[in-house]
Structures are given as C-alpha cells and as structure tokens.
Amino acid sequence: MRKTILLVLLVISSIQFAPGQGLYSPGQPADDGRFAASTKQVNQFFRRFNAEESQDGKKRYYSNDAEYRSTDLRKKFLDILFDNETSSIEAELKKEFVVDVINEEQPKYLDFHQGEWFAEVQTTFKYQGKSENVTLFMKLQPEGLGYEWVIERVGFEPFKKYFDKDTGSKKQFLHPLSHELDFMNLRRAFQENPKPESYTPTDYEPDYLTLFLYEIKKGHFKFENVTDLKFHFFQIDNWYFELAQFNRPGFNTGWLISNLVKLQEGDEDAVLKYIYDQK
C-alpha cells in the first residue's frame, strides 16, 4: 500500500509541472531582478542550495567567508529553489524538508561529486527510418584528475517489446531432462518459439545499454536532438527530489525542485523503478 501511494504521488506531481517546463522554451525574464532570482545553471542550484553564493549571484562564497553556508541565507535560497507555480508539492512537506536540511546540529548539503544524483536526458534518434524517443540516464564518474558524464542506462520502448517475456502457463520451457538428450531439443526450441528469452533465468533483465551501443555501431541509430532534461537526487538522507528547468515570465524560473518525496525504508527502490520503467 505504501509503494502504491508513493507512485501515485509521483505520477500526479509529474503531470502537474509538465506544462510549465521546457529545455528550450521561450520567455527569458527581463533584467529587473528576475534574472538574478532565476537559478540559471545546475551548478548554481548546488551553490544556492548550500548557500555558497550571494543573493544576487555575483559573488561566490568560500569557507573563509562569513556568509558561507549561512543558515539564514539558506532559508532565503531554499524558498526560491522550488517550483512554486505549477508543482503539487504540499507546503507542509516542503517546510519539513527545509527544516531537515538546515538543521543546525546536522545540516545537509549537496555535493556535486558525491554521486546519488543522475540526469535523465530525453533525446531523439533516427531508427529504422523514423524519429524515435530514447531516454539516456547519465551519471558522473571519476576520470583521471577530473570527472566525466557517462551513460548508465537506456530507455527505449521498441527494445522493451523485444523482451516481453511470457509467464505462467504461456511460458515455454526446456524440460528438466533435456540434458539426457544432449540438449538436442534446443533446435526445436529456437525454431518454434519467437521468444527465446523464455529460456532465461527468472531474474533475467535485458541489457538495453549494450543493445543501444551495438545498434549505434551498426549504424542503425543516428542522433538527432536533445529534447528535455531533468535530474534526480537521492543525496539528502530520507528524501528524493527532482530538478527541472522552468523558462517562463516572473521570478520563479530556472532550475527548480519540481517533485519532492519523503522516503521510508524500501521507497528508494520503488522510486527508481518508477523512473526507469516508465520509459
């Protein structure tokens, strides 16, 4: 029941904020304070969440600065780091999150290089003669003296259709005495069953990333465009939030928290499954 409620909240929230966001939407704010209020870059979101820059965004704060990670400054920033116009985040939930994050005894900060956050990149590729939507899930990893973005998972609907494994009485199987026949029944199994995944372990999960890379190497995928981008954060203990870009008139613009969920034991796996399986 808990997981069902959790997924319903995720679905409702994603529907609520979708019309207000866009990676390349029109409507740049005029320079009358709106530009300073807008969180224009993801890196700036990190700095504002941690209170590591001035309110006008002109000065970067470091550990020897008096305002560095100031609780009062964090309160001011956190109030404008939420989508306050179109998301369905309840005020009490937001308040609970802020109180937890700025707790003076154990404050919580975001760390760009810590992990536990990743990008969801919506793209289009030309595949078999037509444009197809491909979702790339990307993460940062150490590389040499720095870091690099890498593709960790791929979501592609046609791949999922290839691996629609039957279950129960519909599932074909290899007889437990097949070894006594030197597995000669494999010929019939592969010739007559269009779903060879039937002969894989119960916990088998297809590796869509390898398939995707193979198809690119074969020249079957041709990159076209990036159409949307958002980020998923699990860095704050017992919380999940989603970061999306909102380009619209007004002060509440830029990279903002568009979804917020308080996590209990087991919820993180449920949220990840929802994020990955909806693609």
UniProtKB/TrEMBL annotation:
Residues 1-18 form the signal peptide. Keywords: Signal. It comes from the Bacteria. This is DUF3828 domain-containing protein. It comes from Litoribacter ruber.
